[in-house]
Structure formats: structure tokens, C-alpha cells
Amino acid sequence: MSHSTRHPLHNSLVKQLIFIDEKRVELQDQYKANAPNQERNHPFFDNYVNEVEKFLGEFDQQAHSSLPKVFIGSRVSVVFEEDNFEDQFTIGFPEQSDPDRGYISVLSPLGRQLLLRSLDEVVPVSTPNGETRVVIRKIDFKDYQ
């Protein structure tokens, strides 16, 4: 099998890794400015890069109509446990954020807490309105750059 033509998901994730590498200091500064005090020294982008590299190392072009984890560029369907309300968000870099259209920053409280979570995982989420729990029902990759 020729590897000269890569799956669009593979190509997008490689571009993300390059972008993060080039903007690491700026992104880490933005993370620290937005994260709660107890998380400010968390290696947020290092963990993300490690997970993406692991995923790419095991990448199977035939098996990716949906994703096992939430990556940047994912459209995530979640169900809020308290009222069974379902919503969708696309997780992007800060400059791509447009909450009115469902695009949230990876550095927003919800985006930060959903990143790298798995399909069907119950995620406790802290929001400005308090604590809640969401269940991840679907993860699709939506390359919107």
C-alpha cells in the first residue's frame, strides 16, 4: 500500500502538530491565562501532542469515520446528564472560536475538559454556572481550517 497519499485526518493532525510546535509558547501562555490556578502548570499541549503522535503511529486509514478520542478539530456530541439535553461543539484553536456557530476554543473551560476524552465517557465539567456531567456520544473529525 502506498503511503504517498495520506488520509485527510492524518494530514490535518500532522498540520496541528506543526502549528502547535511553531506556536507552543503563545499557546501555553494562553492556556495558563485561561486555566484554573491548580491546572496552570499542567503540561496540556505536551499531553495533547503525545496522544496525537500515538494515534498517528497506530493510524488505519480504513477505520476513521469516527474517532476514539476528542482531538482539536473534532465535532463532539454530548448529552448533559442533568436534563438529557444534547449539544454539539467543534473544538478548535482559540482564533477559531465562534460559540454562536458551535465552535469552541480548546482553551475554553468546556473545550479543555473534553479534549482527549473518549467516546461514551462521562465527563465531570466545571463551568461558570457550576458543576455538571456530560456523556460523549459521538466524535467526528471536522477539518474546518
Key features?
145 residues; alpha+beta; Chitinase A, domain 3; 4 helices; 5 strands; globular
Account of the protein in words:
By secondary structure, the protein is α+β, with helices and mostly antiparallel strands. The protein has one domain (8-141): Chitinase A, domain 3. It has four helices and five strands, in the order αααβββαββ. It has a five-stranded mixed β-sheet. The longest helix is centred in the first third of the chain and has 15 residues, at 8-22.
- What's the overall average pLDDT, rounded? 87
| CATH fold type | Chitinase A, domain 3
Low-confidence stretches: none
- According to CATH, the homologous superfamily is Transcription elongation factor, GreA/GreB, C-terminal domain
The overall number of domains is: 1
Question: Summarize this, please?
Answer:
This protein has helices at 8-22, 24-34, 44-57, 109-114, and strands spanning 74-80, 85-92, 103-105, 122-127, 130-141. With 145 residues, the protein is α+β, with helices and mostly antiparallel strands.
Reconstruct the topology from this structure.
Elements: H1 8-22, H2 24-34, H3 44-57, E1 74-80, E2 85-92, E3 103-105, H4 109-114, E4 122-127, E5 130-141
Parallel strand pairs: 2-3
Antiparallel strand pairs: 1-2, 1-5, 4-5
Helix pairs in contact: 1-3
